[in-house]
Design brief:
Strand content: 25-35%
Structural class: alpha+beta
Number of domains: 3
Helix content: 25-40%
Number of helices: 18
Radius of gyration: 35 Å
CATH class of the largest domain: Mainly Beta
CATH superfamily of the largest domain: Kelch-type beta propeller
Number of strands: 27
CATH topology of the largest domain: Neuraminidase
Strand order of the largest sheet: 6-5-4-27
């Protein structure tokens, strides 16, 4: 007999562990599955309706928390040979017991809901997750609301979120399906209030509400006012408010609905009072905010550009639109009656008085009547459904002239001249007036500002800004005037000033994150967007927004091309209501 004490163990172990191969567990389960098929050693029978499913307790307990609790606690079923499973789909139970032995489960359209229901009862999170992922791929406008409710009943939060987002993204199609008509009022109100509801305009939301109401008019007509509060009624077009909403008999019969209608009409008739309205009622949804168009300008090579970039405000994506007919730097840009205008500028060889309009449907530019005066480094604004081109430079002289354009007659005519000659000027319309801010008179950069009174056809000086600003960005928002950035003769600025017309005073607000001059400014809702420009060293393609409610600037995704002295404006699906 070997004497183990005499063995040299310096390089040997005094024990060895044998480990089964990777397929050991699978082999064991396959053997148990074979035994189950032969009904060998089975110690439990699941009675599901008329179906009997034989199995092994230990396999079911290892597979499901539900069965583990049933077999290991002092429950009546722990000692029963047969267990009656009530309100369970026999096919899904059979498939899941097979899965317990094989680890393989086929999920099909016709079985997925029953499988998810049974998996939820048996506490099988991995199966629930797979069923949820399968249902996500089956989402359709005709079923997404039903799937959302089903997922909510089974606490599948990711599927609830996915189906809800699908309904928001495809709202127009969803609202035309039968499931939409069956929505309970609270769920409908929740859906309608969503900021991410994907619609072209609030008119689609209004029409969806009325379709839902008329499906069961007698029982639902009293819910109209509550549902209308979830849409942005002031953002409905005046024509739609008068021709459709005001003419609706159910609206006429409800005093709360009439109050909402009056508020919406006042929004259009009394623009100077919009700041008093609840902001949630007049803030556009993300899908309707449209896009910022950055038009022409000058790039780092000094060339005038004809290119146009579109910054989609709902998803932050930048795309290339059709180029203008002529390159234009120092161009004036504005939106009038939903049409985008580019006015004047410099094409690289000559100063321009030509004007183009952009058709957002055909995505083509068209010429309209030219200005009376060639202009570059001017600015344009819209007042009383007319376009005003203010100041600028004609290649020889800094201009004080101003001219107006009426799209109905396609004609330009001269109006009262500025009190001060200005190029690199900033201009914006505040209800009832146009303000011209900063710029350069050819000798110095200006801090002065002036106001145009259309009734008197005259410009009147107002209080000076705190800083000189040439190439200043100017915007009007909430009855206030904002002047940001610019060049003071020594450096580019990042400061922001706000003008209060009622007090004739300026005050500083939070500065931009970057110094900018020759940048563009656009306004949407409570936000101002500063786009591109020059920081004193380089041309910029960056975008930042100022939230007037928060009083701070936030950087956004960049545009594609670095450029300055471009035109910037917002085109959207909200009816244009010019001040």
């Amino acid at each position: 007999m070997m004497d183990f004490d005499e063995l040299d163990t310096s390089c040997s172990l005094d024990m060895m562990v044998h480990r089964a191969g990777d397929g050991y567990c699978g082999q064991a389960l396959r053997l148990m599955h074979q035994l189950r098929k032969l009904n060998k050693l089975c110690d439990i029978v699941l009675q599901v309706g008329k179906t009997e499913i034989s199995a092994h307790r230990v396999v079911l307990a290892a597979f499901s928390h539900y069965f583990y609790a049933m077999f290991t606690n002092d429950m009546l079923e722990a000692n029963q040979h047969a267990i009656n499973m009530k309100q369970v789909d026999p096919m899904s139970m059979q498939l899941l017991v097979d899965y317990a032995y094989t680890g393989v489960l086929e999920i099909r359209v016709e079985t997925v809901q029953a499988l998810l229901d049974t998996a939820s009862m048996l506490q099988l999170p991995d199966v629930q997750k797979s069923c949820s992922e399968f249902l996500k791929r089956q989402l359709h406008p005709a079923n997404c609301l039903g799937i959302r409710n089903f997922a909510d009943a089974h606490t599948c939060t990711d599927l609830v979120e996915a189906s809800g987002k699908f309904a928001e993204r495809h709202f127009t199609e969803v609202a035309n399906e039968d499931e939409f008509l069956l929505l309970p009022k609270p769920q409908l109100a929740e859906l309608l209030s969503c900021e991410d509801l994907n619609v072209n305009s609030e008119e689609e939301v209004y029409n969806a509400i009325m379709r839902w109401v008329y499906h069961d008019k007698d029982n639902r007509k009293n819910a109209i006012a509550e549902l209308l509060q979830q849409i942005r009624m002031p953002l409905l077009s005046p024509r739609f408010l008068v021709d459709i909403v005001e003419a609706e008999e159910l609206i006429k019969q409800d005093i709360k609905c009439r109050d909402l209608l009056d508020e919406a009409k006042n929004y259009h008739m009394l623009p100077d009072r919009r700041t008093r309205m609840r902001q949630s009622r007049i803030k556009p949804r993300r899908s309707t905010v449209g896009s910022i168009y950055c038009i022409g300008g000058m790039d780092s090579t000094g060339h005038s550009l004809s290119s146009v970039e579109r910054y989609n405000l709902s998803n932050g994506r930048v795309s290339i639109e059709a180029s203008m007919i002529s390159p234009r730097s120092g161009v004036g840009v504005a939106v009038l009656d939903g049409t985008l205008y580019d006015v004047g500028g410099y094409d690289g060889s000559q100063y321009l008085n030509t004007v183009e309009t952009f058709d957002s449907v055909t995505r083509r530019w068209h010429r309209v009547a030219s200005m009376l005066q060639v202009r570059r480094y001017h600015s344009v604004a819209v007042l009383d459904n007319q376009l005003f081109a203010v100041g600028g430079y004609d290649g020889v002289s800094v201009l004080d002239s101003v001219e107006a354009y009426d799209p109905r007659t396609n004609k330009w005519w001269r109006v009262g001249s500025l009190d001060t000659r200005r190029r690199h000027i900033g201009v914006a319309a505040v209800p009832g007036s146009i303000y011209a801010v900063g710029g350069s008179d050819g000798a110095s950069y200006l801090k002065s500002a002036e106001r145009y009174d259309p009734k008197m056809n005259q410009w009147v000086p107002v209080s000076n800004m705190h800083s000189r600003r040439g190439g200043v960005g100017v915007a009007s928002l909430g009855g206030r005037l904002y002047a940001m950035g610019g060049y003071d003769g020594q450096a580019n600025l990042n400061t922001l000033e706000r003008y209060y017309p009622e007090d004739n005073r300026w005050s500083f607000l939070a500065p931009m994150t970057q110094c900018r001059s020759g940048h563009g400014v656009a306004v949407l809702g409570d936000l101002m967007y500063a786009v591109g420009g020059h920081d004193g060293v380089q041309y910029l393609n960056t975008v930042e927004t100022f939230d007037t409610q928060l009083g701070e600037w936030i950087s956004q995704g960049p545009m594609g091309t670095c450029r300055a002295v471009a035109g910037v404006a917002v085109l959207n699906n909200i009816p244009c209501t010019n001040v």
